[in-house]
């Protein structure tokens, strides 16, 4: 269990990360991200992607931690505070934590310890913070064997997190490409393991927040959890191989290839969403010209599952008008009306089917 890559070693590590395999993987990842950044601008409002993709990320990231629910249940839990399994409610909190982190970053333009702590609090639903008790170890999930012991004292944790914050935000500390740096940051955060729970999920939120911070994306719309979920044993093996044998190159290549794969699938999804929006606009103009508006279309795509109250809140309609519009949209097949006890909600089924298909394909 004695690690050759010490948590006390400063970042970046003293190994060559400008190797041919790293640079090759980096070229592919950069190209895929650049394409995604451009394609995303084709949508009239990137909040459509932020709102729809954040819940997809929450589902995938939570599943890595064996917190499993369905997309339908998670959306319903987001609509109704008294609905849903504990797992569905955790997924919803994840989605809210990611959005909260992005809001705070947008305000301050740094990724600070305070932002990560706030994200942790939203995720957990309480006012906790860094680990305060010793005794935390990481175990092999199959054998139960202890594979790594993170820093134990609060003083150590705080010192390491302050160093990590500086490394994240001070570009002068590292001349490596930001995508390589993202891989280093993610590993260091998981190795510090600062929180009593939720470290994997916060660490994966940190990835996309960092890509936005360094302007490789205009908004947090690329999430690596789907790739990690499909290769979970490899993810954990490579995390530990850095600690045990200083195998940074393999870890960085894994993260770069995951970025390429997810950027590619997200590109396809964005194109499909854009085409679906155009199709729905044409249909609505032809069939329901009296209620058509850009704001209404955007709302139906930002909220694949919606209620009268959401439409009323986000678009300046009265309740009766919102109800009338949703009734007309249902009658013309733009949304499906679902009864949930005494409440009704409405589903943009074509969009939801796109999201389901992407989840299945990658």
Describe the structure.
With 362 residues, the protein is mainly alpha-helical. 64% of the residues lie in helices and 5% in strands. The chain is built from 15 helices and 5 strands. The chain has helices at residues 20-40, 47-64, 71-79, 86-108, 113-124, 154-169, 178-192, 199-213, 225-230, 232-245, 248-287, 294-302, 308-314, 319-331, 349-361; strands at 138-139, 146-148, 305-306, 336-340, 343-347. The strands form 2 sheets. Strands 3-5-4 form a 3-stranded antiparallel sheet. Strands 1-2 form a two-stranded antiparallel sheet. Strand 4 and strand 5 form a beta hairpin. Helix 4 (86-108) packs parallel to helix 8 (199-213) and helix 11 runs antiparallel to helix 15. It is globular. It starts with 19 loop residues before the first helix and ends with a helix. The relative contact order is 0.14. The model has no long low-confidence stretch (mean pLDDT 91).
């Amino acid at each position: 269990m004695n690690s050759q890559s010490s948590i006390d070693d400063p970042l970046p590590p003293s190994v060559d990360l400008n190797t041919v395999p790293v640079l090759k993987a980096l070229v592919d990842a950069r190209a895929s991200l650049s394409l995604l950044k451009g394609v995303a601008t084709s949508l009239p409002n990137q909040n459509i992607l932020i709102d729809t993709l954040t819940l997809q990320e929450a589902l995938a990231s939570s599943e890595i931690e064996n917190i499993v629910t369905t997309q339908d249940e998670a959306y319903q839990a987001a609509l109704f505070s008294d609905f849903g399994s504990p797992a569905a409610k955790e997924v919803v909190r994840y989605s809210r934590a990611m959005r909260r982190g992005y809001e705070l970053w947008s305000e301050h333009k740094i990724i600070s310890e305070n932002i990560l702590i706030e994200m942790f609090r939203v995720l957990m639903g309480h006012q906790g913070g860094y680990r305060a008790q010793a005794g935390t170890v990481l175990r092999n999930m199959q054998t139960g064997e202890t594979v790594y012991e993170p820093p134990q004292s609060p003083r150590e944790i705080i010192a390491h997190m302050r160093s990590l914050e500086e490394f994240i935000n001070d570009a002068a500390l590292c001349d490596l490409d930001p995508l390589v740096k993202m891989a280093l940051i993610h590993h260091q955060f998981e190795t510090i393991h600062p929180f009593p729970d939720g470290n994997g999920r916060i660490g994966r939120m940190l990835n996309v927040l960092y890509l936005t911070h360094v302007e490789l994306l205009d908004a947090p719309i690329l999430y690596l959890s789907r790739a990690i979920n499909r290769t979970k044993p490899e993810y954990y093996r490579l995390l530990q191989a850095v600690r045990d044998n200083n195998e940074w190159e393999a870890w960085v290549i894994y993260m770069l290839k995951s970025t390429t794969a997810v950027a590619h699938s997200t590109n396809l999804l964005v194109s499909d969403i854009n085409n679906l929006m155009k199709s729905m606009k044409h249909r609505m103009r032809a069939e329901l010209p009296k209620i058509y508006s850009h704001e209404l279309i955007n709302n139906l795509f930002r909220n694949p599952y919606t209620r009268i109250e959401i439409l009323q809140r986000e678009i300046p309609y009265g309740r009766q008008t919102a109800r009338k519009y949703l009734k007309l949209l249902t009658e013309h097949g733009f949304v499906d009306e679902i009864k949930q006890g005494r409440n009704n909600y409405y589903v943009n089924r074509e969009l939801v089917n796109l999201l389901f298909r992407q989840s299945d394909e990658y």
